[in-house]
Amino acid sequence: MMTDGLDYPFDAPPPMGEPQKVADGLYWLQLPLPFRLDHVNVWLLEEEAGWCVVDTGLADRTTRELWQKLLEGPIGDRPVTRILATHFHPDHLGLADWLQDRTGAPLWITATEWLLGRMLSLDGSDALVETYRDFYRKADLPQALFDRLSSIGNAYRRIAPSVPAAFRRIHADDRLTIGGRTWRVIIGRGHAPEMACLYCDSLNLLIAADQVLPRISPNVAVWPNEPLADPLTDFLDSLKQFDGLDGSVLVLPSHGLPFWGLHDRVAELKEHHAERLDAVLEACGAPVTGARIGETLFPQDLDAQQLAFASGETFAHINHLEHQGRLVREIGGDGIWRFKRP
What we know:
The protein has about 350 residues and is of the alpha+beta class. The chain is about 35% helix and about 20% strand. Strands 1-2-3-4-5-6-7 form a 7-stranded mixed beta sheet. Helix 8 links the parallel strand 11 and strand 12 (about 250-255). It is globular, with a radius of gyration of 20 Å.
């Protein structure tokens, strides 16, 4: 289903850590990730007094070294004036504290994303780990996979060990003046609870963060600390906000290449999730566990990180159907959730 009928202005990304001009006053910077998804895009916006940095990458040695070279070289002629994080995930917010220490720039972010990042960076409690164990136990993950996941603990702290203690709050529909241009804040939900996308009408550009990606579906997941959430409804509803944007808008995603074809891509994402929902319903003719449903959606071999994402995405579809009354959840004497069509 994930066919690629999009148009791309660039054939390839810039070399890691080397800015590439996308439009007047806007540069594309790609930073490495030590995962199967091996990069994140961040954006440098010129201001009169310096640079607005949109997202930061992970708090790891490689990323710090690349930023140090940037601060001493290509962008070192002017200061970083603000750090704008689209959402709390470590590849976006992880290095904000380090970058703030070196530049003095304030962090701009929505309140929910700051709260989640700040909380997770500080939480070393056994209670958090047990919350994860309880969720995966009820999902009926095989013991070996359960052990792999539950042993990770709070993985967030390892790649985002600190989040700035203060921030400048941004809100839905705020108009931010950056480099003499107006950028409207559009809040995306589902992948993250209050993710800031930025739209500039004069440049016809959308910094889409992880809300709309060109070749992969953004991870829309239920996490153990909110096990009955319905992030898929949030995701699908927030996609409607892009309906009014010009069809020729250039989309700047957090992963993959910038592209044209926003409305076609949104339609593909909606179709993708409709197909996933049908597959879950098909699997639930008789009571079945979350783990078995997950094997239907993700039959490939997964590492621990991918398994966590896959489990969360499986339950996003389960919970969505349950909220609609199309699935019923049962809990047996063994404490395991099972799902069936009513």
